[in-house]
Amino acid sequence: MKNLRKQSWLRWGLGGLGALFALVVVGALVDGWRAFGQRAIGDRRARMEKSTQWSSGHFVNPQPMVNDLWGSLVGAFNASKDASPSQPIPTVRGGAERFATPPPSGLRVTWLGHSTILVEVDGHRILTDPVWGERASPLSTVGPKRWYAPLLALKELPPVDAVVISHDHYDHLDAPTLTAMKDWDTTFIVPLGVGAHLEYWGVPASRIIELDWWERTKVKGLEIVATPSRHASGRFVTDTNATLWASYALLGPTHRVWFSGDTGLFPAMRDIGERLGPFDLTMIESGEYGSAWPDWHLGPEQAVTAHQMVRGRVMLPVHWGLFNLAFHGWTEPAERVLVAAKRLGVTAVFPKPGQSFEPAAPPPFERWWPELPWETAEQAPIVASQMN
Question: 113: phi > 0 → left, psi -120 to 50 → alpha, else beta; which?
Fold first, then answer.
Protein backbone atom coordinates (compact mmCIF):
# COMPACT_ATOMS: atom_id res chain seq x y z
CA MET A 1 0.00 0.00 0.00
CA LYS A 2 2.81 2.39 0.93
CA ASN A 3 4.57 1.66 -2.36
CA LEU A 4 1.39 2.43 -4.26
CA ARG A 5 1.08 5.76 -2.43
CA LYS A 6 4.72 6.62 -3.20
CA GLN A 7 4.23 5.77 -6.86
CA SER A 8 1.07 7.87 -6.95
CA TRP A 9 2.82 10.87 -5.38
CA LEU A 10 5.76 10.41 -7.74
CA ARG A 11 3.48 10.35 -10.78
CA TRP A 12 1.63 13.40 -9.45
CA GLY A 13 4.88 15.26 -8.85
CA LEU A 14 6.32 14.44 -12.26
CA GLY A 15 3.03 15.34 -13.88
CA GLY A 16 3.02 18.67 -12.07
CA LEU A 17 6.58 19.42 -13.15
CA GLY A 18 5.70 18.49 -16.71
CA ALA A 19 2.67 20.76 -16.65
CA LEU A 20 4.74 23.61 -15.19
CA PHE A 21 7.40 23.15 -17.88
CA ALA A 22 4.72 23.17 -20.57
CA LEU A 23 3.27 26.39 -19.16
CA VAL A 24 6.72 28.01 -19.16
CA VAL A 25 7.30 26.97 -22.80
CA VAL A 26 3.87 28.20 -23.89
CA GLY A 27 4.39 31.47 -22.02
CA ALA A 28 7.76 31.99 -23.70
CA LEU A 29 6.27 31.29 -27.14
CA VAL A 30 3.45 33.74 -26.53
CA ASP A 31 5.83 36.39 -25.16
CA GLY A 32 8.31 36.07 -28.01
CA TRP A 33 6.01 35.20 -30.89
CA ARG A 34 6.17 38.52 -32.77
CA ALA A 35 9.85 38.96 -32.01
CA PHE A 36 10.65 35.63 -33.67
CA GLY A 37 9.76 37.28 -36.97
CA GLN A 38 8.71 35.60 -40.21
CA ARG A 39 10.26 33.18 -42.71
CA ALA A 40 10.77 34.22 -46.31
CA ILE A 41 8.36 32.80 -48.90
CA GLY A 42 7.42 33.33 -52.54
CA ASP A 43 9.54 35.64 -54.68
CA ARG A 44 11.72 36.58 -51.70
CA ARG A 45 12.60 32.93 -51.08
CA ALA A 46 13.19 32.33 -54.78
CA ARG A 47 15.69 35.18 -54.93
CA MET A 48 17.49 33.84 -51.86
CA GLU A 49 17.86 30.43 -53.48
CA LYS A 50 19.64 32.01 -56.45
CA SER A 51 22.39 33.42 -54.21
CA THR A 52 25.83 31.82 -54.47
CA GLN A 53 25.79 31.79 -50.64
CA TRP A 54 22.72 29.48 -50.60
CA SER A 55 23.19 25.73 -50.27
CA SER A 56 20.94 22.85 -49.18
CA GLY A 57 18.17 25.05 -47.83
CA HIS A 58 20.19 27.69 -45.97
CA PHE A 59 23.01 30.22 -46.29
CA VAL A 60 26.61 29.14 -45.78
CA ASN A 61 30.03 30.73 -45.30
CA PRO A 62 32.80 30.04 -47.83
CA GLN A 63 34.91 29.03 -44.83
CA PRO A 64 32.88 26.87 -42.36
CA MET A 65 33.02 28.07 -38.76
CA VAL A 66 34.48 26.31 -35.73
CA ASN A 67 31.99 25.98 -32.88
CA ASP A 68 33.23 24.11 -29.79
CA LEU A 69 30.13 23.42 -27.69
CA TRP A 70 32.10 21.79 -24.88
CA GLY A 71 34.48 24.74 -24.81
CA SER A 72 31.49 27.08 -24.54
CA LEU A 73 30.21 25.14 -21.53
CA VAL A 74 33.61 25.26 -19.84
CA GLY A 75 33.87 28.97 -20.64
CA ALA A 76 30.54 29.64 -18.94
CA PHE A 77 31.86 28.15 -15.71
CA ASN A 78 34.99 30.30 -15.95
CA ALA A 79 33.29 33.57 -16.88
CA SER A 80 34.88 36.78 -15.64
CA LYS A 81 33.33 38.25 -12.51
CA ASP A 82 33.61 41.58 -14.35
CA ALA A 83 31.58 40.51 -17.39
CA SER A 84 29.10 43.29 -16.53
CA PRO A 85 29.88 46.69 -14.97
CA SER A 86 29.30 47.10 -11.25
CA GLN A 87 28.98 50.89 -11.52
CA PRO A 88 27.15 53.17 -14.00
CA ILE A 89 29.04 53.65 -17.26
CA PRO A 90 29.93 57.25 -18.25
CA THR A 91 27.77 58.22 -21.23
CA VAL A 92 27.00 61.30 -23.28
CA ARG A 93 23.35 62.22 -23.64
CA GLY A 94 21.80 64.91 -25.80
CA GLY A 95 18.97 65.75 -28.11
CA ALA A 96 18.63 66.31 -31.83
CA GLU A 97 20.03 69.84 -31.54
CA ARG A 98 23.62 68.58 -31.67
CA PHE A 99 23.02 67.25 -35.19
CA ALA A 100 21.57 70.54 -36.47
CA THR A 101 24.97 71.67 -37.78
CA PRO A 102 26.63 69.44 -40.38
CA PRO A 103 30.10 68.14 -39.51
CA PRO A 104 32.76 70.52 -40.84
CA SER A 105 34.83 67.60 -42.16
CA GLY A 106 31.84 65.92 -43.84
CA LEU A 107 32.04 62.79 -41.65
CA ARG A 108 30.80 62.50 -38.07
CA VAL A 109 29.95 59.36 -36.10
CA THR A 110 27.97 58.85 -32.89
CA TRP A 111 28.37 55.48 -31.20
CA LEU A 112 25.22 54.67 -29.21
CA GLY A 113 26.50 51.41 -27.74
CA HIS A 114 27.07 47.90 -29.11
CA SER A 115 26.57 48.09 -32.91
CA THR A 116 24.12 51.00 -33.02
CA ILE A 117 25.86 53.90 -34.76
CA LEU A 118 24.62 57.11 -36.33
CA VAL A 119 26.86 57.91 -39.30
CA GLU A 120 26.72 61.37 -40.92
CA VAL A 121 28.61 61.11 -44.19
CA ASP A 122 28.70 63.67 -47.01
CA GLY A 123 25.27 65.08 -46.19
CA HIS A 124 23.57 61.73 -45.47
CA ARG A 125 22.60 60.02 -42.23
CA ILE A 126 22.80 56.26 -41.81
CA LEU A 127 21.76 54.33 -38.70
CA THR A 128 23.26 50.87 -38.21
CA ASP A 129 21.71 47.93 -36.31
CA PRO A 130 19.35 50.08 -34.19
CA VAL A 131 18.58 48.56 -30.78
CA TRP A 132 16.47 50.68 -28.45
CA GLY A 133 14.85 47.69 -26.72
CA GLU A 134 15.50 46.67 -23.12
CA ARG A 135 16.87 43.20 -23.87
CA ALA A 136 18.76 41.40 -26.64
CA SER A 137 16.14 38.68 -26.51
CA PRO A 138 12.71 37.75 -27.87
CA LEU A 139 11.41 37.68 -24.29
CA SER A 140 10.45 40.73 -22.26
CA THR A 141 11.73 39.40 -18.92
CA VAL A 142 14.60 37.03 -19.82
CA GLY A 143 17.81 37.62 -21.73
CA PRO A 144 20.77 40.05 -21.78
CA LYS A 145 19.65 43.43 -20.45
CA ARG A 146 21.18 46.69 -21.58
CA TRP A 147 23.47 48.43 -19.10
CA TYR A 148 22.10 51.92 -19.67
CA ALA A 149 18.98 53.47 -21.15
CA PRO A 150 19.03 54.61 -24.80
CA LEU A 151 21.19 57.72 -25.04
CA LEU A 152 18.93 59.43 -27.55
CA ALA A 153 15.20 58.91 -27.79
CA LEU A 154 13.99 57.63 -31.16
CA LYS A 155 11.83 60.72 -31.54
CA GLU A 156 14.92 62.90 -30.97
CA LEU A 157 16.93 61.33 -33.78
CA PRO A 158 17.44 63.63 -36.75
CA PRO A 159 15.90 62.43 -40.06
CA VAL A 160 17.70 59.28 -41.18
CA ASP A 161 18.18 58.48 -44.88
CA ALA A 162 18.74 54.76 -44.37
CA VAL A 163 18.64 52.14 -41.63
CA VAL A 164 21.24 49.46 -42.33
CA ILE A 165 20.93 46.05 -40.65
CA SER A 166 23.72 43.46 -40.71
CA HIS A 167 21.81 40.30 -39.73
CA ASP A 168 18.85 39.06 -37.72
CA HIS A 169 20.33 38.15 -34.32
CA TYR A 170 18.54 39.84 -31.43
CA ASP A 171 21.36 42.22 -30.50
CA HIS A 172 21.24 43.62 -34.05
CA LEU A 173 17.64 43.27 -35.21
CA ASP A 174 15.35 44.46 -32.42
CA ALA A 175 11.63 43.93 -32.99
CA PRO A 176 10.39 46.72 -30.65
CA THR A 177 12.72 49.21 -32.33
CA LEU A 178 11.79 48.23 -35.88
CA THR A 179 8.10 48.29 -34.96
CA ALA A 180 8.53 51.83 -33.65
CA MET A 181 10.28 52.78 -36.92
CA LYS A 182 7.75 51.23 -39.29
CA ASP A 183 6.25 54.58 -40.32
CA TRP A 184 9.57 56.36 -40.76
CA ASP A 185 10.23 58.08 -44.06
CA THR A 186 13.46 56.15 -44.59
CA THR A 187 14.94 53.20 -46.48
CA PHE A 188 15.68 49.92 -44.71
CA ILE A 189 18.65 48.05 -46.19
CA VAL A 190 19.04 44.44 -45.09
CA PRO A 191 20.65 41.17 -46.24
CA LEU A 192 18.63 38.61 -48.22
CA GLY A 193 15.62 37.26 -46.33
CA VAL A 194 15.69 39.73 -43.45
CA GLY A 195 13.01 41.85 -45.13
CA ALA A 196 10.42 39.20 -44.20
CA HIS A 197 10.88 40.09 -40.53
CA LEU A 198 10.48 43.81 -41.22
CA GLU A 199 7.31 43.35 -43.28
CA TYR A 200 5.85 41.17 -40.52
CA TRP A 201 6.45 44.03 -38.07
CA GLY A 202 4.72 46.56 -40.31
CA VAL A 203 7.50 48.10 -42.41
CA PRO A 204 6.16 48.69 -45.95
CA ALA A 205 7.75 46.45 -48.58
CA SER A 206 8.38 49.53 -50.74
CA ARG A 207 10.84 50.84 -48.13
CA ILE A 208 12.87 47.62 -47.84
CA ILE A 209 15.90 46.84 -50.01
CA GLU A 210 17.43 43.37 -49.66
CA LEU A 211 20.98 42.80 -50.87
CA ASP A 212 23.23 39.85 -51.54
CA TRP A 213 26.99 40.18 -51.05
CA TRP A 214 28.57 42.69 -53.45
CA GLU A 215 25.18 44.06 -54.50
CA ARG A 216 24.74 47.81 -54.13
CA THR A 217 22.04 50.42 -53.95
CA LYS A 218 21.89 54.20 -53.85
CA VAL A 219 20.16 56.32 -51.24
CA LYS A 220 20.14 59.83 -52.66
CA GLY A 221 23.82 60.49 -53.36
CA LEU A 222 25.21 57.75 -51.12
CA GLU A 223 26.10 54.32 -52.46
CA ILE A 224 25.70 51.40 -50.06
CA VAL A 225 27.33 48.05 -50.83
CA ALA A 226 26.59 44.83 -48.97
CA THR A 227 29.96 43.17 -48.48
CA PRO A 228 30.75 39.64 -47.23
CA SER A 229 31.03 38.67 -43.59
CA ARG A 230 31.62 35.41 -41.73
CA HIS A 231 28.84 34.76 -39.28
CA ALA A 232 25.38 33.16 -38.95
CA SER A 233 21.72 34.05 -38.47
CA GLY A 234 18.55 32.86 -36.78
CA ARG A 235 15.89 33.92 -34.28
CA PHE A 236 14.40 30.54 -33.36
CA VAL A 237 15.62 26.95 -33.14
CA THR A 238 14.19 26.09 -36.55
CA ASP A 239 15.55 28.98 -38.66
CA THR A 240 19.34 28.71 -38.32
CA ASN A 241 21.01 30.51 -41.26
CA ALA A 242 17.66 31.01 -43.01
CA THR A 243 18.66 34.63 -43.75
CA LEU A 244 21.94 36.14 -44.92
CA TRP A 245 24.44 38.20 -42.90
CA ALA A 246 26.55 41.06 -44.27
CA SER A 247 28.92 43.91 -43.67
CA TYR A 248 28.48 47.25 -45.48
CA ALA A 249 30.50 49.86 -47.30
CA LEU A 250 29.06 53.39 -47.25
CA LEU A 251 30.49 55.26 -50.23
CA GLY A 252 29.95 59.00 -50.40
CA PRO A 253 31.32 61.51 -52.91
CA THR A 254 34.14 62.35 -50.50
CA HIS A 255 34.25 59.78 -47.69
CA ARG A 256 34.13 56.01 -47.34
CA VAL A 257 33.08 54.06 -44.23
CA TRP A 258 33.00 50.31 -43.57
CA PHE A 259 30.73 48.64 -41.00
CA SER A 260 31.70 45.05 -40.19
CA GLY A 261 28.44 43.86 -38.65
CA ASP A 262 29.21 40.60 -36.83
CA THR A 263 32.01 38.59 -38.36
CA GLY A 264 34.99 36.37 -37.87
CA LEU A 265 38.18 36.96 -39.83
CA PHE A 266 38.07 35.72 -43.43
CA PRO A 267 40.31 36.07 -46.51
CA ALA A 268 37.84 38.13 -48.60
CA MET A 269 38.34 41.10 -46.30
CA ARG A 270 41.30 41.89 -48.53
CA ASP A 271 38.94 41.94 -51.52
CA ILE A 272 36.73 44.46 -49.72
CA GLY A 273 39.70 46.74 -49.18
CA GLU A 274 40.98 46.38 -52.73
CA ARG A 275 37.59 46.87 -54.40
CA LEU A 276 36.06 49.55 -52.18
CA GLY A 277 38.76 51.01 -49.93
CA PRO A 278 40.56 52.77 -48.55
CA PHE A 279 38.09 53.70 -45.83
CA ASP A 280 38.25 56.90 -43.81
CA LEU A 281 36.66 54.99 -40.93
CA THR A 282 36.05 51.37 -40.08
CA MET A 283 33.45 50.44 -37.46
CA ILE A 284 34.53 46.95 -36.47
CA GLU A 285 33.10 44.51 -33.95
CA SER A 286 35.72 43.95 -31.26
CA GLY A 287 33.85 42.43 -28.32
CA GLU A 288 31.68 39.47 -27.28
CA TYR A 289 34.17 36.84 -28.43
CA GLY A 290 35.41 33.50 -27.11
CA SER A 291 38.06 30.92 -27.97
CA ALA A 292 35.32 28.29 -28.39
CA TRP A 293 33.83 30.22 -31.32
CA PRO A 294 36.88 31.88 -32.96
CA ASP A 295 35.22 32.25 -36.37
CA TRP A 296 31.96 33.82 -35.17
CA HIS A 297 33.53 37.03 -33.84
CA LEU A 298 36.83 38.73 -34.52
CA GLY A 299 38.18 39.36 -31.05
CA PRO A 300 40.22 42.53 -30.41
CA GLU A 301 43.48 41.63 -32.14
CA GLN A 302 41.80 40.28 -35.25
CA ALA A 303 39.56 43.35 -35.33
CA VAL A 304 42.70 45.45 -35.78
CA THR A 305 43.91 43.00 -38.43
CA ALA A 306 40.55 43.30 -40.22
CA HIS A 307 40.91 47.09 -40.16
CA GLN A 308 44.22 46.74 -41.96
CA MET A 309 42.91 44.16 -44.44
CA VAL A 310 40.07 46.43 -45.58
CA ARG A 311 42.49 49.39 -45.74
CA GLY A 312 41.08 51.52 -42.95
CA ARG A 313 42.53 54.78 -41.70
CA VAL A 314 40.72 55.30 -38.36
CA MET A 315 39.13 52.42 -36.44
CA LEU A 316 36.10 52.57 -34.13
CA PRO A 317 35.76 49.39 -32.04
CA VAL A 318 32.06 48.47 -31.64
CA HIS A 319 29.98 45.50 -30.46
CA TRP A 320 30.87 46.06 -26.82
CA GLY A 321 29.86 48.31 -23.93
CA LEU A 322 26.10 47.60 -23.75
CA PHE A 323 25.30 43.89 -23.23
CA ASN A 324 26.89 40.90 -21.52
CA LEU A 325 27.02 38.35 -24.36
CA ALA A 326 30.32 36.54 -23.66
CA PHE A 327 32.52 35.39 -20.80
CA HIS A 328 35.32 37.97 -20.87
CA GLY A 329 35.52 41.11 -18.74
CA TRP A 330 33.46 43.96 -20.14
CA THR A 331 36.47 46.30 -20.48
CA GLU A 332 38.72 43.67 -22.04
CA PRO A 333 37.87 44.46 -25.70
CA ALA A 334 39.02 48.06 -25.29
CA GLU A 335 42.19 47.11 -23.42
CA ARG A 336 43.21 44.52 -26.00
CA VAL A 337 42.39 46.72 -29.00
CA LEU A 338 44.56 49.42 -27.43
CA VAL A 339 47.52 47.06 -27.18
CA ALA A 340 47.09 45.66 -30.70
CA ALA A 341 46.53 49.06 -32.29
CA LYS A 342 49.65 50.48 -30.67
CA ARG A 343 51.71 47.49 -31.76
CA LEU A 344 50.54 47.76 -35.38
CA GLY A 345 50.46 51.56 -35.61
CA VAL A 346 46.68 51.76 -36.07
CA THR A 347 44.66 54.82 -35.03
CA ALA A 348 41.77 53.54 -32.86
CA VAL A 349 39.24 55.83 -31.17
CA PHE A 350 37.31 55.07 -27.98
CA PRO A 351 34.45 57.57 -27.55
CA LYS A 352 32.12 57.29 -24.61
CA PRO A 353 28.75 55.80 -25.54
CA GLY A 354 26.74 58.65 -27.04
CA GLN A 355 29.77 60.79 -27.88
CA SER A 356 30.11 62.19 -31.40
CA PHE A 357 33.46 62.58 -33.15
CA GLU A 358 34.93 63.30 -36.57
CA PRO A 359 37.58 60.85 -37.84
CA ALA A 360 39.42 63.71 -39.55
CA ALA A 361 40.27 65.01 -36.06
CA PRO A 362 40.00 62.04 -33.67
CA PRO A 363 39.31 62.96 -30.05
CA PRO A 364 42.19 62.64 -27.59
CA PHE A 365 42.34 59.28 -25.86
CA GLU A 366 40.41 59.05 -22.59
CA ARG A 367 40.22 55.90 -20.49
CA TRP A 368 36.59 56.38 -19.45
CA TRP A 369 36.16 52.78 -18.33
CA PRO A 370 37.52 51.46 -14.99
CA GLU A 371 40.78 49.54 -14.72
CA LEU A 372 39.71 45.93 -14.16
CA PRO A 373 41.45 42.57 -14.55
CA TRP A 374 41.52 41.28 -18.13
CA GLU A 375 43.12 38.48 -20.11
CA THR A 376 45.72 39.29 -22.73
CA ALA A 377 45.90 37.94 -26.28
CA GLU A 378 48.56 35.49 -25.09
CA GLN A 379 46.36 34.23 -22.24
CA ALA A 380 43.15 33.92 -24.28
CA PRO A 381 43.94 34.02 -28.01
CA ILE A 382 41.21 34.29 -30.64
CA VAL A 383 42.53 32.76 -33.86
CA ALA A 384 40.26 32.24 -36.86
CA SER A 385 40.47 29.01 -38.80
CA GLN A 386 40.95 28.57 -42.57
CA MET A 387 42.67 31.88 -43.20
CA ASN A 388 45.10 30.48 -45.79
Answer: left
Query: Is-contact 290 328, C-beta < 8 A?
Result: yes
- pTM for the predicted model, two decimal places: 0.92
Distance from C-alpha of 5 to C-alpha of 343, rounded to nearest angstrom: 72
Assess contact for 166 and 210: CB atoms under 8 A: no
| Topology, domain 49-357 | Metallo-beta-lactamase; Chain A (3.60.15)
Strand 208-211 and strand 187-191: pairing?
parallel
The answer, yes or no, to whether residue 21 has pLDDT greater than 90, is no
E-state strands within 98-240: 107-111, 117-121, 124-128, 162-164, 187-191, 208-211, 216-219, 222-227
Q: What is the largest CA-CA distance in the chain?
A: 88
Please check whether residue 280 is in contact with residue 258, taking contact to mean a CB–CB distance below 8 angstroms.
no
> How confident is the model over 305-331, as a mean pLDDT?
98
Ordered by start, the domain boundaries in the chain are 2-36, 49-357
The span from the CA of 324 to the CA of 279, in Å, is: 30
User: With contact defined as beta carbons under 8 Å apart, do 128 and 117 qualify?
Assistant: yes
